[in-house]
Amino acid sequence: MRRSLIDAKVLVTGGSSGIGRALCKKLVQRGAHVLATARREDRLQDLERECRQGPGSIQTLTGDLADPLHRHAVIDWIDGHWRKLDVLVNNAGAGAIGRFEQAGEERLRRIMEINFFAPAELTRECLPWLRAACASKRRPAILNIGSVLSHRAVPLKSEYCAAKFAMRGWSEALRVELVAERIDVLMLSPSTTKSEFFDSLLESTPGQKSPSVGSMSADQVAEEAIRVLIRSKRERILSWGGRMLVWLGRFFPRLTDWFLERFAIPKPNA
Ligand SMILES: NC(=O)c1ccc[n+]([C@@H]2O[C@H](COP(=O)([O-])OP(=O)(O)OC[C@H]3O[C@@H](n4cnc5c(N)ncnc54)[C@H](OP(=O)(O)O)[C@@H]3O)[C@@H](O)[C@H]2O)c1
User: Fold this and answer.
1) Which residues are 9's β-sheet partners?
2) Which of 200, 223, 237 to mutate to test the pocket of ligand 1 (most atoms within 8 A of CB)?
3) Which of 86, 151, 249, 258 has its CA 20 to 30 A from that of 49?
């Protein structure tokens, strides 16, 4: 089945930068009507200006997705304007770098909040509107932006890996729960992507770099997201390096642990 994006009503979280921003632009270029959310109002206004030419359209709502009041405002907006939702893209996310023991409970809770609880609760609230799209003969979809780290965890990002694993487990269960209603649950797992992600870390140990294998542009990842939506691909892991890490972790877990301990954790005298 190929999903048409023309005239589709699409909610994208985290539309102010990186993958979400690139995806909003591509959706508008393909004729979709987009509601983009994020905290930075100036960035969302820039996005609106850049998308003015259409052929689709964009509207924006500013707020913190971890705040239930903002999530309710998003739902109220859909209720007041569209009264249905064809696609929900759970893209907003943030990371942190550093040893688990050296961080506090606050970091764990904030990472889980933005990467897992917020998208899960937003999805719960969007479901009635996704169902309403079924009635208009479209096949609705929830696209969750996970990570290669939803499939294989790495050191110094324990909280982020936990949140992205949670997102993947929840997606798998929800996918089956929604089969009978013909609502697709899709997951795209990018590997390291050039975006503002590493500038917006919630917390980072000073001098800590993020070791990465390869690096895609936000535009390339957004194009993959479009492909996943159009072709209803249930799960897609990006980049050769990303797939290699997941494959190694699955079939050679001890070797992967050894490799990560040796190369992903900076040594004190290095
Ligand atoms: N970059 C990578 O290497 C990489 C790799 C794998 C997966 N991913 C995933 O890809 C997704 C997009 O990340 P990106 O690379 O595009 O990073 P990014 O440029 O930092 O974009 C993150 C987006 O999320 C929004 N956001 C963050 N916290 C928010 C909050 N509390 N409330 C509302 N919006 C919030 C940000 O907007 P505001 O700051 O304006 O609120 C921004 O629009 C994330 O889920 C990330 O985990 C990224």
Assistant:
1) 33
2) 200
3) 86
Note the residue count of the chain: 270
CA distance linking residue 249 with residue 263, whole number of Å: 15
Superfamily of domain covering 9-263: NAD(P)-binding Rossmann-like Domain (3.40.50.720)
The amino acid occupying position 112 is: M
Looking up tokens 């109220």, which residue turns up?
A: 76
How much distance in Å is there from the Cα of 142 to the middle of ligand 1? 17
Residue ranges in the chain whose pLDDT is less than 50: none
DSSP SS3 for 149: helix
The answer to whether the CB of 193 is under 6 A from ligand 1 is: yes
Q: Select from 155, 17, 8 the least CA-distant residue to 82.
A: 8
Residue range 94-143, pLDDT digits in tens: 999 999 999 999 999 999 999 999 999 999 999 999 999 988 788 999 99
The letter for the amino acid at 197 is: F
Write the CB contacts of 262 (distance below 8 Å, at least 6 apart in sequence). Answer: none
Domain range list for the chain: 9-263
